[in-house]
Amino acid sequence: MADGMEKQLQPGDVLFNEGDRGEIMYLIREGKIKITKGKGDEEKTLAVLKEGDFFGEMAIIDGSPRSAGAVAVTPVSLLVIDKESFKEKLSENPLIEYVLETLTRRLRTADEQIRLLTIKSEERRVLAHIITKAKETGRETDSGIEITPFSFENLANITGMSEVKVKDYVNKLVQVNLVTLHENALIIRGIGDLDDYLRYIALKEKFEKI
Known about the structure:
Jelly Rolls, 210 residues
């Protein structure tokens, strides 16, 4: 899609979902867009953007999946700016490009930490972070999906837990053969298996309360 094109949305139209790949950013010319996290009953509105606001820039700066979803609240007119045009402008000033990439990394880390801290269960918090890292930065190897670098200290910091607790939860994953540790890397047998285990933990916690 070329720079300068317009896109029209009707109320309730989904522009993109959390986790989608992003090659485009948007400027709102008219109407309102809500930025959301989660789905269904767990959906939370982070912001409602209006005329003159822009969004979607982080995905085209660092190539990571969308950190949130975007849904039209009213009839909306958007100006579309594609990745190629945006990068071309940035390349004219390498310092600005470096600053934006650094800010984007920091914002993504903050977004992830905020999301994790809303998960009350510490075990699910650890699992959710490992799954997210595997999907976003994991590298396919013969042994599985590798997260490098990996450290208990960093995992403890981002999940807001003690290093001892984090080690206990990761060691439990090692014991059930879902992950392995190798020097400064965490290797995941399969994301699907971790997703299933996360659902199992959530159901177990739910029915234990009954």
